Amino acid sequence: MAERIPQSFIDDLLTRIDIVSVIEPFVTLKKTGANYVACCPFHQEKTPSFTVSPAKQIYHCFGCGEGGNAISFLMNYEHLNFVDTIEALANIAGVEVPHQQATTKQAAKESADFYTVLEKCTAFYKKQLSQHPQAKKAIEWLKKRGVNKEIIEHFNIGFAPPGWDNLTKVINNNSKYQKLLLTTGMLIQKPNTSSIYDRFRNRIMFPIKDRRGRAIGFGGRVIDDDDTPKYLNSPETPVFHKGHELYGLYEARKINRNLKHLLLVEGYMDVAMLAQHGINYAVATLGTAMTTNHVQKLFRACTEVVFCFDGDNAGRAAAWRTLEIILPLLRDNWQAKFIFLSDGEDPDSLVQKIGQTEFEKLIQNADSLSEFFFDHLNQQINLQQIDGRAKLAQLVMTYIQKMPQNMRKEIMIETLAEKIKMPPEKLYKYITDQKQSPIKTNIAQTQTTLSPIRIAITLLMQNPSLISQFNQELPALDAPGMPILRELCVLLKAKPTLTTGGILEHWRDKPEYKHLQNISHYEHLLKNQDLVQEFCGAIDKIHAHATESAIEQLIAKTEGAGLTNMEKKQLQKLLKESKIEN
């Protein structure tokens, strides 16, 4: 039920857009020869290693490894999702994005119906808070908690009255709405009966919104603290996935589209009360543990996230689990920080006690990720002893090896070296996943190490126009890289005007994407007049390898079951071709 943008439109858009004009508003580029260079916007550096190629329509940083096309840049720099990025580029190009539906028209209509019925629920709960005879208790509870009218309106807070059939009465036996409300979990059907009742009863209601501001689910908080559970959330539905969503993110972005930082807290009331005190950049998970999707969503919205936890053992354990999720994803420009509150305090109660200024001091003085990381592992380790330092090194390197290769990883290694009083270079030999610096070389000088398949893929990736030199079928050769080469040739035969950046887009969500991105900036130092010869030579070698492989298989068969007359003729033909090629 998700939106899909036609690939043909994306291909055309990338031919209309100049990657230099996309990057230049954000990064100061300096022209050097055919390319542009700058200090990388994705990690801190003094010597420029960020390169933009107008010919290939790609960018690449030789320092941190970030790279891709114009779409990749906006997604990474502006923290936009794919659809929003395409819309932004289309706006630059002055064209309108055509949207298709990823499923049938009926499924698409159902998706729209889900949003419609959940908006009706939002309106219903808001109305009950102001008009229901028993809403007085809910209003008094909100006043007691210090929630003002502006915040109630800002977050569309409502009230689910006591009773089992309030929503049922509203839909007035409308079978369509009843089915939708059952699917979204707003109504529940008793097993093996036709009896239906409201999920949310006698609760303060917090609508959960997606990035467009559409209600996709609800959180309900009890009014009587003796009732259980204290918080009740909508179940998983076709439009609501708790492991992906963050309460308050839509409202935070509505106030400030260019968020500098986010504060992650635990509950709906924390988000509401912080916003009421001017801290309108707080968000919360929906009663679930932190997930990879949450982390990626947070850092797409901004580059600094402060995670707020209780200071007890449970809170610190939750913070460590969050850190473990962040580490493998950590980028140089991400700033993750941690706050631990005193026992018995939560952001809701604390901000009411100390106010915005003092609370924001806590945010400013939050522990950095590395501080929390080393403090946590330092516990129960005596760094004055050799065994303690060795134990810390073992623990730290277990996590460091999970990190992507970037400047942050290098700094973590140097910090560890300082703590265990060992030269950093001695630690590096224990880290097996260090990324090698790119080596400028001539493909013709390294054919013993680069297969002809890789050479052909590399040259086609960097010079798509070479497809015009390819007028034959690729042989049936089972070898690494052949599926990519086949797909690449088919793609360029169909779309010969694609740039390198356009080709990369066709592999965006595939496992081969990173590999193709890496070879798209490979420095082969071949002159233009040598490219055709090198490419055709690689294709010839692929055919020769296919011939040799077929000969080996037929000869091996002669030692077993023997060859048929047709296979004997085929072997003779292949041997003749092999002599001609040699």
Count of distinct structural domains:
5
Rg result: 30 Å
Overall pLDDT score: 84
Largest sheet: 5 strands, antiparallel
- Say how many strands there are: 18
CATH top level assignment of the largest domain: Mainly Alpha
- The low-pLDDT segments are 432-449
Our count of helices gives 24
Distance between the termini: 57 Å
Strand proportion, as a percent range, falls in: 5-15%
Return the structural class.
alpha+beta
Looking at the structure, what is the overall shape? globular
| Percent of residues in helices | 40-55%
Instruction: Enumerate the strands of the largest sheet in spatial order, edge to edge or round the barrel.
Output: 2-3-4-5-6
CATH architecture title of the largest domain: Orthogonal Bundle
Going by CATH, what is the homologous superfamily of the largest domain? DNAb Helicase, Chain A
CATH topology of the largest domain: DNAb Helicase, Chain A
Describe how the helices and strands are arranged:
Layout: E1 3-4, H1 7-16, H2 19-23, E2 30-32, E3 35-38, E4 50-53, E5 58-61, E6 67-68, H3 70-77, H4 82-93, E7 100-101, H5 105-131, H6 135-144, H7 149-154, E8 158-160, H8 166-171, H9 175-183, E9 187-189, E10 196-198, E11 203-209, E12 215-222, E13 231-233, H10 249-255, E14 262-265, H11 268-276, E15 282-284, H12 292-301, E16 304-310, H13 313-326, E17 335-341, H14 347-364, E18 367-368, H15 369-378, H16 386-400, H17 407-419, H18 424-428, H19 452-462, H20 482-494, H21 500-505, H22 513-519, H23 528-558, H24 565-581
Parallel strand pairs: 14-15, 14-16, 16-17
Antiparallel strand pairs: 1-7, 2-3, 3-4, 4-5, 5-6, 8-11, 9-10, 11-12, 12-13, 17-18
